[in-house]
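Q: I'm teaching a short session on how sequence maps to structure, and I want students to see two examples side by side rather than one. Could you give me a first protein with its sequence written out and its structure tokens following it? Keep the formatting plain so it prints cleanly on a handout.
A: Of course. Example one:
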Amino acid sequence: MAGVSGIKEHMEVIGADGAPVGTVDKVEGGRIKLTRKDSGEGSHKGHHHYIDGSLVADIEGNKVRLSANGAVAVTMEQEA
């Protein structure tokens, strides 16, 4: 587990399979706060979602790779 140190604003967040999950807005309380544009549809649209820092597997250049596949990671997103 890589943790959240070294994660910077505007980095791309991808699943273990390379699927895009979102873009880093900032790190807050050990969680990655995703930008609002990545908030999804319906009742989830227009507000921030968070990815728990424990899901970070690696930081590769300007990408944060998660330990879960992209489709699984989005089901683990948290709201404020």
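Q: Perfect. Now a second example for contrast.
A: Example two:
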Amino acid sequence: MNAPATASMLQALPAEHRHRLMRFAREVSCPQGARLFEEGGRADRFWIIRTGSIDLDMHVPGRHAAVIETLRHNELVGCSWLFAPHTWHLGAKATTPVRAYEFDATMVRSMCKDDPALGANVAQWVGGVLAHRLRSARTRLLDLYAPYGSGGFL
């Protein structure tokens, strides 16, 4: 299935795989201002936003954390859970009250290992999101800290 890099799980995964994952989803709520995770922490879960918004941020020494991207409805929060060493590369903070589906990373990795087709689809989905976020981080940091911004030359 070829979906855009920023595709939601609904767009990126075949219905069968989506339904299998959703059987293990847990509905959670986070108040505005709550930190979901910090850079360097153990990446043991991920979320799909139902309502609200979450800022992904990056620690910048000597400065406030730089917001890399704001995530909203149906977007994946957290990519580091899939790739060893399973530590967060960014931080995440709820900018509004958030309702989301939460997934246990160990359980999903085990499912992916047991079903190579599921694993390939999940890896392609998360990898595409991760590539998009890397480009966003680069652009955002250039805009914030480079002498002339990103200049649109990516």
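Q: What should students look for in example two?
A: Point them to this: Confidence is low (pLDDT under 50) at residues 1-5. Also worth mentioning: The first strand starts at residue 26 and ends at 30.
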